[in-house]
Amino acid sequence: MLRTKVLSLVARSGPSRLMSTATKLTTVEVNDKTGIATLTMCRAPVNGLNLELLKDLKTSIDEIESNKSRGLILTSSNATIFSAGLDIMEMYNPEKERIRAFWTQLQEVWLSLYGSSVPTAAAINGHSPAGGCLLATSCEYRVMLPKFTIGLNETQLGIVAPKWFMSSFLSVLPQRQAERALNQGRMFSTEEALQIGLIDETATSKEEAVEKCAAFLGTFARVNPLARALTKQQFRAADLQQLENERKDDLEKFLFFINQPAVQKGLGIYLEGLKKKAKK
Ligand SMILES: CCCCC/C=C\C/C=C\C=C\CC(=O)SCCNC(=O)CCNC(=O)[C@H](O)C(C)(C)COP(=O)(O)OP(=O)(O)OC[C@H]1O[C@@H](n2cnc3c(N)ncnc32)[C@H](O)[C@@H]1OP(=O)(O)O
Question: Mean pLDDT across the chain, nearest whole number?
Fold first, then answer.
């Protein structure tokens, strides 16, 4: 695949530049005035995080990082779904080498997004279960549209959120609430998420959500960028280091767990339910 790490200008619209590394599943648009980059996930139908979307996300985050953007806003091109989380097809009857690459890439994306030196915000313009919630909670600020849901629902699927999913969740919610929500596999409505502090603000449209994210990122305009980045890093260093130290172990645990016949059976039933619901 044609992919270069060098930023290339492929289009101009208003005061924004659309940057691309020839990826297909993400776009990066930089506002010339504010220097803020909007990273949009655009994998139909539901922004399921498969290996290719994860690779494109990683490339785009790296691009934004190396381009010294003033901020990163993560959002979706889908009008009702931010991200449906991990693409369950990657985990159901998996192919040996691909599933290793898939989980490794997910680790990479989390390390780059949660550990980004650039300030980050999520404009959550749709449902955001599991891996979608992981991405949103890896950012420093969340603005969500009404009538959607967000949460880590892994236990509802018979799977277990690994430690680093919990780290992102715990960087937003107090331990008692995080633990209960994770054990229940609870999905929160926008209103509930606001009340509990899982999101910071609501907005009535995607444009407003992006504007509110930009306003949050703008609060750092007068803060020394190095001091800000090092402060953020210190808050997050222990979580990041833990995964760095345990990456191989984490991969092996995931592979062992996901290949259990009972887990495969559960995923199959869950997928079937999703497909039946989609046909109705
Ligand atoms: C101690 C050791 C620990 C080790 C670690 C071990 C394991 C950890 C492993 C995994 C962690 C996983 C985290 C995850 O992210 S799992 C994914 C969880 N996601 C979900 O549960 C979301 C499911 N989807 C939905 O709820 C809805 O689809 C949604 C609300 C997002 C959208 O609803 P809508 O009505 O608009 O769309 P649908 O008709 O439901 O879907 C359209 C289409 O898309 C398919 N689909 C939906 N979600 C997924 C998905 N996550 N993966 C794959 N495919 C998905 C759906 O089946 C429809 O397909 P089709 O019928 O049109 O073919």
Answer: 93
Task: Name residue 223's amino acid.
Answer: V
49: which 2 tokens? 């995080």
CA distance 165 to 169: 6
For the full predicted model, state whether its pTM sits above 0.90: yes
Choose the residue to mutate in 41, 274, 275, 279 for probing ligand 1, maximizing ligand atoms within 8 Å of C-beta.
274
- Tell me the domains of the chain and their CATH numbers: 8-279 (3.90.226.10)
Question: In degrees to the nearest 10, what's the CA dihedral of 106, 128, 123, 11?
Answer: 60
Residue 39 DSSP label:
E
**Active site residue: 54, 86, 106, 157, which one?**
86
Amino acid at the residue 173: L
- Kindly give the distance from the C-alpha atom of residue 275 to the centroid of ligand 1, in angstroms, as a whole number: 10
Q: Measuring CA to CA, how many Å separate 38 from each of 32, 89, 223, 230?
A: 12, 28, 21, 23
| Predicted interface score ipTM higher than 0.90 | yes
Structure token pair of residue 11: 């289009």
Which ligand 1 atom sits nearest the alpha carbon of residue 134?
15
